[in-house]
Write a structure and sequence with these properties.
It is a single chain. By secondary structure, the protein is α/β, with parallel strands linked by helices. It is built from 15 helices and 14 strands. The strands form 3 sheets. The protein has an 8-stranded mixed β-sheet with strand order 2-9-8-7-6-3-4-5, with helices on both faces. A 4-stranded antiparallel β-sheet has the order 10-11-14-13, covered by helices on one side. It has a two-stranded parallel ribbon with strand order 1-12. Helix 2 crosses helix 11 and helix 13 runs parallel beside helix 15. It is globular.
Length: 417
């Protein structure tokens, strides 16, 4: 076929395939690239325990018959999901977010949630989205698939630059564009690892309310910090935050369960969540009830708190983060022009070097030094970040971190010489 959708030609769509290919080609390379949750506590037996807990909940708390319990797991189920009430309960418990179950749409991972929201907001060629540069490639991909232009906003070491956000809103208005929303990750952002302090969160909400735009808050990593700040949604008094949630890092990545809280009223009645549900019905019909049941069981077995459920994992991520930062200081602290940020949580660290970091360097690192990272230009849409790389600390053991940082240091010092 000669012509296909234009998104397929965009480098962002295929950027992550490169990493998968290199991992397959160099299986002995230490991967400091994959942002996957720690695997030490994975246990197949837990899947059965979680399913049993959810079925017990259906019998005991919802008073369902055995036939109804069976139907809940085996049939399609409601498009919005069968565990919206438990998701709302978890948000109240862990995030101090008050969300009515009818405002929740359970999705096939957070990726579908992003797609549904952007598809609903994009009405014509004048609609645009703002997002920090660099930004999560999944957001970039969802924007490409929905033909939503993304206008970048500068980032700082403390997250999205609010002065530049105001400037970009002005430029968009002058260009005749309508900014529908701004995507933002206030806690331990992917890829930078940066977080916003409390005054910045409040100012961001004020800016969005003043300009009449939505904030799309992605909070995949918020639980994994030494100190936790309130989410934008918890601080939102104006009803302008659409909350994008994921159980990939806190629940079980293989379940592929995410959700969106969209409690904004829409013209003609109902909530934005109702409109997203219509789109979902034509896209994935519903999210697997069995996958939802597994996540629900984990919630129920931990009194609806994923903070408690992830106490061991959070301790490991904190350990790995400090070990990696200490290793960088030990091996690269004296190297001119080499710097890195110091996140207090999450999975990622950004390293800046005085030379080009491209896919050729990544291939060289895998082949000759046995280490993998993610070149940051993938998160800039190929329009920046060519002297930065992202390290992920989540999947590794202390020994692998020590060896991985040593291999990375050998690569960097070799380039500097």
């Amino acid at each position: 076929m000669e012509t296909l959708h234009g998104s397929l030609a965009d480098p962002a769509i295929s950027s992550m395939n490169l990493l998968n290919e290199l991992i397959d080609e160099y299986p002995r390379a230490i991967s400091m690239a994959a942002g996957r949750p720690h695997e030490e506590f994975f246990d197949v037996g837990q899947i059965h325990q979680y399913l049993d807990s959810y079925c017990d909940h259906l019998r005991r708390d919802r008073k369902l018959s055995e036939a109804e319990v069976t139907r809940t797991l085996f049939q399609y189920g409601a498009t919005k999901g069968v565990i919206a009430d438990l998701v709302a309960g978890n948000l109240a418990e862990d995030e101090d977010i008050v969300a009515a179950p009818e405002s929740v749409v359970v999705t096939v991972g957070c990726q579908e949630a992003m797609f549904l929201v952007l598809r609903a907001l994009r009405t014509d060629e004048n609609d645009v989205l703002l997002a920090p540069a660099p930004t999560y490639v999944g957001l970039t991909g969802a924007a490409l698939l929905t033909d939503t232009p993304v206008r970048p906003v500068r980032s700082t070491e403390d997250g999205i630059d609010l002065d530049d956000l105001t400037h970009q809103l002005k430029l968009a208005r002058e260009a005749g564009k309508r900014v529908r929303a701004c995507y933002v990750t206030p806690d331990f952002a992917n890829p930078t690892g940066t977080s916003m302090d409390l005054p910045a969160r409040r100012r961001l909400l004020e800016i969005a309310a003043e300009h009449g735009i939505l904030l799309l808050e992605d909070n995949a990593y918020g639980l994994f910090g030494a100190d936790r700040l309130p989410s934008l949604k918890a601080l939102d008094d104006a009803g302008i935050v659409v909350y994008l949630g994921s159980f990939a890092k806190t629940g079980m990545p293989g379940a592929r369960v995410g959700y969106v809280v969209a409690d904004q009223p829409v013209a003609g009645g109902g909530l934005l969540a109702d409109q997203l549900s219509k789109l979902k019905g034509m896209l994935t019909v519903n999210t697997s009830p069995i996958a939802q049941a597994v996540i629900a069981g984990k919630l129920l077995r931990n009194d609806l708190s994923l903070t408690r459920a992830n106490a061991r994992e959070t301790a490991i991520y904190q350990r790995n983060l400090h070990l990696t930062l200490d290793g960088l200081s030990r091996t690269l602290g004296a190297c001119p022009g080499v710097t890195w940020n110091t996140p207090t949580g999450g999975f990622f660290i950004t390293v800046t070097v005085p030379f080009t970091v491209d896919d050729d360097l990544l291939a060289h690192a895998a082949r000759d030094h046995g280490v993998l990272f993610t070149p940051m230009h993938h998160f800039y849409g190929g329009k920046g970040g060519f002297n930065q790389l992202r390290l992920s600390i989540s999947l590794l053991t202390p020994d692998l971190i020590d060896e991985g940082v040593s291999r990375l240091a050998a690569l960097i010092t070799g380039r500097l010489r």
